[in-house]
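WARN no homologs supplied; continuing
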Amino acid sequence: MGPRRVGKTVLMWHAIEKLLHNGVDPRRICYISLDSPTYTDLRIDELVRHFRERQGFSDLKDCYFFLDEIQYHRNWEIHLKKLVEDYRDTRFIASGSAAAALRLKSQESGAGRFTDFYLPPLTFYEFLYLLDKEDLVATSSPEEYRQRGVRYKSNDIGRLNQEFINYLNFGGYPEVIASPAIRANPARYIRSDIIDKVLLRDLPSLYGIHDVQELNRLFTVLAYNTGNELSLESLSTGAGVAKNTIKKYLEYLEAAFLITILHRVDHNAKRFRRANFFKAYLTNPSMRCALFGPVNTDSPVMGFLTETAIVSQWMHSLFKDPLFYARWDKGGEVDMVYLRENQVDWCVEIKWSNRYINHPDELRGLLDFAKRKRVDAVGVTTIDKAGSIEYSGVPIKFIESSLYCYIVGRVSTRALGERCSGMLEDAH
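OK structure emitted
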């Protein structure tokens, strides 16, 4: 499951290539793109039966069925569940870009039979890897680690920041990176192939949404305000959509991997009974740049897009659910708070500024929260400065935003099985 154009189909092709390389009989591998009109009126079990008859098999033992864009088939989950029960020695691999249908229906009918894998947009780590620019980040030496307290360092923070800007503008999708023609106008590609097809085709067809312009207006407001605190009331006013309708649309947009939502805790890290306020982030910042224009290091929205980029790295992680932001009366706020067993593991203030390394007294909300909850792992991101200080009894680690984004993306992508303490050690 994952949004459009992140590489789900290519991943299937790689899997097929590996099967062939490992000696699997090619006749026992079946790939079907189910969004083709050819298959509209055929149930999945009928397609499987046709395959078996065509190949002349007495059974389907050790066969592999790759069913691409499965959500466009009505009642797919019922038919797939039956196939899994009937053919125990057969593997069925399905994909879909409208994750709303996949997630909700698989939970209803496939419990214990389906295993879900999520393929979000590229992390910053993957972006650099595909561009063969991993040399911009290196492992810290023991001495550097003792001084900085961070396992990674940038070999050239100026170049790393420039690649970070590129990542914000077009870095979420492999095809954009690989194609010079698309990179010449990434905004057009992202708008037409990713945003418009989900908003104007996928979600309306799956959920019977009649007013697609209403949905489009809401998404535009969310994209413009990515990283800002929102409420149902403010969204209803800004988008001109009823609050009950907004609740449904938010669920659809999050399930389709266009947005991710962080909920709020107070200054005591307590969750609110009524989630009146929340933050909605685009799952990749390049969607905002596609709608409202590219950014550079001096753009006034860099703070919000940096926060969006860092939160989006968590889409790969098994540990996203305990992630919150804190906000309370008198203007107190902390951008990211990680709770484990109702205890604060760490908290981070995300800034695109070097100011606070010399003026830590201005981090009043972060300091108040850290002291109140006795948090030892406290971080602040910067543009290109790093260091560790203790201020007002709170140890603060300053780290470059682009490097921090890389670290979270790297750990989330490569070490999904690690406990969060591993991420804490690497990132903080």
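Confidence is low (pLDDT under 50) at residues 417-428.
OK
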